[in-house]
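Request: Not sure, any thoughts?
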Amino acid sequence: MSPEQNPPQLRWRELSNAELEREYSPSSAIGGDFSQYVEAYIARSEAARTQCFNAGSTLIELRYGSDVSQSVDLVVPAAGVGPVPLLVFIHGGYWQLLSKRESFFAATACLDQGIAFAAVDYTLAPTASLDEIVNECRRALRLLGESATEYGYDQHRIFIAGSSAGAHLTAMAGLTSNESSTTTLGFAPAGLI
């Protein structure tokens, strides 16, 4: 198929492996050094953790597997406010960098609005394949769906968000099977962001 025949959304097929690597690498868009952005993520996330603790919120680590990376950090607004919505955040990092620790920056803004917040961790590539990473995220989300009543958030108001690679993982986790209209999560997300 010639470039004239390929619609814009399919032109990635025309790229070489080196060109694909450049296009999918976030550092290529900013000249190569993204450390200042990672440092800002870390600082904002640590500040959010401190603010959550100072506000009396409890940080709960949920485990969805035996590996260290197979965990979710969850924080829920103070008890007594009824089942609240939950925003689940899946971190980016080119499937190879970052973790839930650097992805906690939105927790205080969520809590301030009466929304629970969870940051999902997963095994990074190349230790895990993309299929394995997607399956880990699905397991983490299934666990969050199953834990709603126990921790005081509403299973029918779980929103899943992600940035960069996390947006890809969010979309993949929310796909439905060919056989039914339900996701592989055991619940229907209220939204994918």
Summary: DSSP finds six helices and six strands in the chain.
